[in-house]
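Reading a protein record of the kind used here takes only a little practice. Think of the row as the fold of the chain written in a discrete alphabet. With that in mind, consider the following protein and its fold in token form:
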Amino acid sequence: MAGHTHFDESTEEYLEAMYRLEREGPGVSTSALASELGVAPAWVSGMLKKLANDGYIEHHSRGQAKLTQSGLEIGVRVIRRHRLAERLLTDVLGMPWDQVHAEACRLEHAISANVEARLIEVLGQPETCPHGLPIPPADGSDPPRPDVPLAQIPAGDSATVYGVTEEVPEILRYLGDVGLRPGAKVNVVEKAPLGGPVTVLVNGVQHAISLELARMVTVVV
């Protein structure tokens, strides 16, 4: 198929996950990859060896791994198409933001270079997915990230929601219900001590959200 990648889906899935962990997460390790992909660590170890042999990653001791330039190119390509697909599903097809991640996981492998270019044009060159995660530049450079976790905003301050770091449907549905979506204005009313909840004001309504959830929501001040 002209313009399409010629890699199997499992290779693309691993390189995409490694990009997320390397550029947006805690770093790449066997355990982190297993958690990200929902597979057993033994499966990850075997796949990392294959990816290293194919030249897509540098695999070090203790399960640490890093994308090579060729691996980075594939990872960036897949994640760009994934997040463009999410934009298509929400902006054009009107799907709820908590349903598009799983659908985009299927579409990302079928989008060609020609379709990717057309999506960028039709969607108005979006810089983020519907959840506020950046659509990385095609050259593999790091996209700007002006956001910080909501949990870091002091009580009494206000900010604008930038995105959500976890694309878990249950979390997205809850955040959507309370109005914590990208672009929403939020005021931090109170921060309970010792890891207690964070009370926020959104659209004139107060909500007490857990500290863990406040770390998943990112904002710009």
Notes: The chain has two domains: 1-144, 148-220. Residues 45 and 171 are 30 Å apart (CA to CA).
